[in-house]
Design brief:
This protein has 2 domains: 58-319, Alpha-Beta Barrel (TIM Barrel); 370-486, no CATH class. It has 17 helices and 13 strands. It has helices spanning 77-90, 104-114, 130-136, 152-157, 163-179, 196-208, 225-236, 254-264, 285-295, 297-303, 309-319, 341-349, 377-386, 393-409, 414-429, 442-471, 476-485, and strands at 7-8, 11-12, 27-29, 58-61, 94-97, 121-127, 143-149, 183-189, 213-218, 242-247, 268-271, 337-338, 367-369. The strands form 3 sheets. It has an 8-stranded parallel barrel, surrounded by 7 helices. The protein has a 3-stranded mixed sheet with strand order 3-13-12. Helix 1 (77-90) runs antiparallel to helix 11 and helix 7 (225-236) packs parallel to helix 8 (254-264).
Amino acid sequence: MCPPVEETNGQTNANGNGTASGNHDGFTGVTTRQNPHSSHKSPYKPVGDFLSNVSNFKIIESTLREGEQFANAYFDLEAKIKIARALDEFGVDYIEVTSPAASEQSRRDCEAICKLGLKAKILTHVRCHMDDARIAVETGVHGLDVVIGTSSYLREHSHGKDMTYIKNTALEVIAFVKSKGLEIRFSSEDSFRSDLVDLLTIYSAVDKVGVNRVGIADTVGCASPRQVYDLVRTLRGVVSCDIETHFHNDSGCAIANAYCALEAGATHIDTSVLGIGERNGITPLGGLMARMIVADRDYVLSKYNIKKLKEVEDLVADLVEVNIPFNNYITGFCAFTHKAGIHAKAILNNPSTYEIINPQDFGMSRYVHFASRLTGWNAIKSRAEQLGLQMTDAQYKECTVKIKAIADIRKIALDDTDSIIRTYHQNLHAKEEVPLLPGMTEEEKKKFAEAEKELSGEKEKRQIEAAADAQAEVPAAKKTKTATVA
């Protein structure tokens, strides 16, 4: 996991031992040119649409509801309070908690969280049933999210009710909750496998009686972005209230679906930290932030304290006993790590060449992996300068050849590479050379010599060919092109 990093003048701090902000074996934090990411509007920002809410959305954070359904989750009251406070510091608009009708402890937990005095509004998620509603309105929540299955699968095999019953019950619950002065959202469950006429009929009915939001739920994670856009766009033409969306990630579309829902006119997105939830979970908070900061950086930075993302993810990961995935959005080990030589050179000059997100916005570091056969001399030069070792470009290139040769025969770590760079520099001024990497076996030494010779030979061959080509009456490149045309 990448730890936070201090900012200086728009650059990433990095010290001589390559551990500017954590232990990344084989990696180094790099200092890049000032203001590496331009402040102008993103070229990827969508074309303006009067229905789009990409620049005006709200987050309903459901780690304390949907997240409790994660297979490995057990949150006692102390843990719930820690999570709620962390989410509030992050700046989420709403925090959704488990139904107080689920258990007596759930009711007490709900009441305790409501008494914390958080800036975020507290919602609870309950069945569309008067018994649940009566319990929930007495807990101190700001609003209720009521839900009932509308697909033929759930109507037949879950609650056994028809659409007439669903409509009448929804209207009764909504009227009751509104009489208590609380927010109310009505959501269908399994929306994308429900009949469209049934959906629009029930949504139209609840909108007319003043529901604050209607909800669309991809309960089984079957929807595609195109399906989401079409349904939300259609619904936007039917209701005047806000539209909340809830996307499961079974088929890997939760983030894309959330974004397309906003483009189509949705106003609220359900998330959970690290995406934890039932089965494969839902739209992850960090993943949504990654998508939205590319779309409208100014809006995201003005509304959410995104430097708190790593802190809240570490907290939840620890509580549910999982590791942050290596490729996790923003906070994963590899999120801002660059390895290929061509990439490293460009990143050192201007990180925008291979980064669409500025890690410093999230308090993160970027790293260059230089302990591998893929490294380039620009990365080695940067590392040598961090170590306080000055050489000519030709010497950096020769040192790089040796590092690549050793990396071709064995895996090398950060300390190995630093040792090679230091020893190479020392040998430049020593009367007698010492081995670049102590402890190599005879077989490794033999392979190293062969690899170094092969790499040097390839380089010399390219140089000879380039020189000959430059002196030729017709350059080789033009000969090849002519031959191809002929």
